[in-house]
Amino acid sequence: MDKNIVFLSTYPPRQCGIATFTEDLVKNLKKLYPLNAYKIIAINDTHYNYGDDVCGVLNQFTKDDYKKLACRLNSSDVDLVVIEHEYGIYGGDTGEYLLDFINNLKIPFITTLHTVLSEPSEKQKYILNSIGKRSKRIITMAKNSSEVLKKVYNIPKSKIQIMHHGVPNISVKDKDNLKDTLGYKNRCIISTFGLLSPGKGIEYAIEAISKVSEKHPEILYLILGKTHPCIKNEYGEEYREKLQKMVQNLKIQDNVKFINKYLSKAEIVNYLNLSDIYMTPYLSKEQSVSGTLAYAAGYGKVIVSTPYRYAQEMLNNNRGILAKFRDSNSLYEAVEFLLDNPTERKTMEKNMSRLGLNMRWPNVASRYENLFSNIIKDNKCKKQVV
């Protein structure tokens, strides 16, 4: 066995974008590098029945467990810890319990950041600055986040590594056949997928579709995904029901369809493949990465999006159209332009496809493995010198 690497992350069956990300990364690492050991310590907010990949759990809201976990790993044969970071998946104020873990961990670790705020609170800034000081490397998924890490959090450039958000490497079926199979023949499909929550701005997309449908009655907007578990636990299906009522009031039931389920990766890829346009009308300009937009980019979709940070970077160089925040008319104009200019749409798709090939998981996993190897090798050399 070559390397022994542990990931600290949420993990399926917990329904969370970071859980899916880590599952995909580990799956591809195991396939490409079978001599290594890759294990998960899963962050629990309740009880889950995990598979064999999970070698332990961390109770998210139990402060003492963070130090205990660090001590346990210190006495193990683990070579490297990979921390998947998002403020909301760790306990304490903005996830501060994680500091008890890293401050007691003697094994080298790297941290992948899924949120990088350009205007953090003092506590958020302190936490990320502390993680940056102790991590061997900080991984971010966008160049603009790299600049924020340097300027706002004082993390040196030498520690920052930019990696694409990986996307599944699944062969796609014929687009027209897929449309026929699902009953969407002769429909122009726009889609948005992911766990549904008020921050997604779907209400603005629905209003835009209402305007588009006047000239293009063949348009069909697919809203794909379950309500986010945290939102559902607190508010039930209030947001989804609000959206459904909007559709009825606007009399566009033939132009909007809700697919209320947690989609498998194969289902996501199929829906993306049959889509003519992908849309992310998100409300937060701070969003430094979007797994759903990454998936769409990975499969060469032309994208209409609000200008959050990740979208600005990914749609650069004529790879899509940016619309204004909270502005259904701006979304409408972007979609209408693409429908009325198919040649321009094809050009954007080709531009996005060239970028998307580099985002497939085998390519991304290879880059992670190279980073892991260099850090472990460097750590062993330092031990020999001492």
Automatic annotation (TrEMBL):
Cited Gene3D superfamilies: Glycogen Phosphorylase B
Domain Glycosyl transferase family: 184-351
Keyword field: Transferase
Classification via InterPro entries: Glyco_trans_1
CDD domains hit by this protein: GT4_mannosyltransferase-like
Pfam families (alphabetical): Glycos_transf_1 (PF00534)
SUPFAM superfamilies reported in the protein's UniProt record: UDP-Glycosyltransferase/glycogen phosphorylase
Gene Ontology MF terms: glycosyltransferase activity
Identification of the protein by name: Glycosyltransferase
